[in-house]
Amino acid sequence: MTDAFRSVIEELTEQHNKQLAAIRETYDRLHDLESTVKSSDGMISIVVGANGQVRSIDFNPRVYQKLSPSELSDAITTLIAQATGDVAERTKELIGPLIPDDLPLEEVFGTDVSLDAFLPQPVEAVE
C-alpha cells in the first residue's frame, strides 16, 4: 500500500470515527431529554421524557378542591401534550443536523428503534 493511499485511508477512518462519536453523543443526549410543565396555578406538575413517556405527575393536595374530575383530566391532558411537544421540538433541534432532510424522524427515533441498526461499527486503523 502506498503512503498516499494509506494517508487517505487513515484520514477517512478518523473522519468516520469522529462522526460516529458525534452521533452517539447526540443519541445519548436524546435519552436524557425531559420537559417539566406546571399548570398556571401551580397545582399540577408533569414530567415527560424522551419519546413522550410520562415520568411523573404531581398534584398539590388542594387541586381536588379546586378542579372537578373532568377539569383535572383536561388539565393533565393539556399539560402532557405541552410537555410532549416541547420534547419533540428539542429532539428535532438535537438530531436535525445529523439527519438527511428526506428521512422522517419517526424512522430513526421511534419507540423500538436502536441506534446500532443505523450505524456501522468503528473502523480499525490500517497498519
TrEMBL record:
Family annotation (Pfam families): YbaB_DNA_bd
InterPro entries linked: YbaB-like_sf, YbaB/EbfC
SUPFAM superfamilies (alphabetical): YbaB-like
Protein name: YbaB/EbfC family nucleoid-associated protein
Lineage, broadest ranks: Bacteria, Bacillati, Actinomycetota, Actinomycetes, Streptosporangiales
